[in-house]
Amino acid sequence: MNKLILLRHGQSQWNLENRFTGWQNVPLTEKGEAEAKNAGELMKKHKINIDKVFSSALERANRTAEIAIKQTELYNLLENNKLIMTCSSKLNERDYGDLVGLNKQETADKFGKDQVHLWRRSYNTPPPNGESLKDVVERVSPYFKENIKPLIDKGKNILIAAHGNSLRAMMIELKMYKPEEISNIELPTGSPLCINLDKGKLLNFNYLN
């Protein structure tokens, strides 16, 4: 049995300010760094020996992965105190287009609560000049199949540090949820979701605590 850990980055500055972040590079807050540290401590507590780390190309995910791995004392994954990981924009957060940088409450006041809810939570409807969740799935899925699944099938333990929507896309790819269910799934920041697999087949999953 091997494990796939899905880790949403710790709280970012724009999470704190309730803004749409998308592909914007925004740093972690102090709370976000503490969440990342706690994630690593939980992996150490459960004796999860990570073989390979993947991350989006965005700073908040990279930093979360680096802080977490340093807590696990997996020094083979560090070089000159820097985490060795594979970063790809294919794992980036959903692009919120014209909404990036806007406060979510102010956006709802401007465009209407129902319209903003549709942009945020529907599977097929993108915000203006942005991506729908379906678009994110179509971006993440080929990358997962080509780069991550072969390692899972070989029994490797994998950590993926990414974002709410790219991780939702991963859950659909893994058949944990159906597209019509996924919009109701909330992923807390800095909380490792441990997926247990056997020969590539999903057995069960739970948040580490």
Polypeptide structure, described:
This protein has 209 residues and is of the alpha/beta class. Helix content is 41%, strand content 17%. It has helices spanning 13-16, 30-45, 59-72, 104-111, 113-121, 133-153, 164-173, 179-182; strands spanning 2-8, 52-55, 78-79, 82-83, 86-87, 158-162, 192-198, 201-207. The protein has a 6-stranded mixed sheet with strand order 5-2-6-1-7-8, with helices on both faces. The protein has a two-stranded antiparallel ribbon with strand order 3-4. The radius of gyration is 17 Å and the shape is globular. The two termini are 20 Å apart.
Structural descriptors:
209 residues
Map the helices and strands.
Elements: E1 2-8, H1 13-16, H2 30-45, E2 52-55, H3 59-72, E3 78-79, E4 82-83, E5 86-87, H4 104-111, H5 113-121, H6 133-153, E6 158-162, H7 164-173, H8 179-182, E7 192-198, E8 201-207
Parallel strand pairs: 1-6, 2-5, 2-6
Antiparallel strand pairs: 1-7, 3-4, 7-8
Helix pairs in contact: 2-3, 4-5, 6-7
Describe, in short, the structure shown:
The protein is of the alpha/beta class. It has helices spanning 13-16, 30-45, 59-72, 104-111, 113-121, 133-153, 164-173, 179-182; strands at 2-8, 52-55, 78-79, 82-83, 86-87, 158-162, 192-198, 201-207. The strands form 2 sheets. The chain has a 6-stranded mixed beta sheet, sandwiched between helices. Strands 3-4 form a two-stranded antiparallel ribbon.
